[in-house]
From TrEMBL:
Keywords of this entry: DNA-binding, Membrane, Transmembrane, Transmembrane helix
Gene3D superfamilies per UniProt: Tetracycline Repressor, domain 2
GO MF: DNA binding
HTH tetR-type domain ranges (all copies): 1-61
Residue spans binding DNA: 24-43
Entry-linked Pfam families: TetR_N (PF00440)
Domain of life: Bacteria
Name of the protein this chain belongs to: AcrR family transcriptional regulator
Bilayer-spanning residue ranges: 148-165
PANTHER family referenced in this protein's UniProt entry, alphabetically: ACREF/ENVCD OPERON REPRESSOR-RELATED, ACREF_ENVCD OPERON REPRESSOR-RELATED
Alphabetical list of InterPro entries matching this protein: Homeodomain-like_sf, HTH-type_Tx_Regulator, HTH_TetR
Amino acid sequence: MDNRENILRSALHLFYAKGYDAVGVQEIADAAGITKPTLYHYFGSKYGLLESLIERYYSSFARSLEQAAEYTGDLPMTLYQTAKVYFQLVSQNKEFYKFVMSMMYSGEESDPYKASEGIRLHQYRLFTDLFDKASDVVGNMNGRQEQYAITFIGFLNHYLLYWFVRKSNEKMISDGQAFSVVHQFLHGIYV
């Protein structure tokens, strides 16, 4: 593993465990087994490291989510596919997922909140577009696509966060659970 990847992994673990603001550059350097100047060489600053960390870990999730959200006329199946992508992310990288959640709920003036803006906007736009495309099939959705997008994202995230608090020893989340979560969400749309 190269220095850059080592620094990113060490920073992610520390940010997840302690929170971004509680971790100093020296602590990251020590954990990665490098010097502070090496960290600055690769990332320029702690905030630059944070941005690189988001780019490194979110980009593949974003691509998978975009592919899963391609609407082909079957809203339940599309939502199920997107839920599976979320569940896979959490199963494969719990630390990144939980760190992103902590960033989204941090103070609005904080670096983590500002750095997570792109993630929030990406997901919000993706699901708003999906529900907009499906509004001709689900008539009671018209005019409420944004509400459904916000609700679906929140529904998934809350379920996933609760799962890992409640079932911390279980690493995998099943496809059956993804189906069940989507089915429960859809019950509110189709009723």
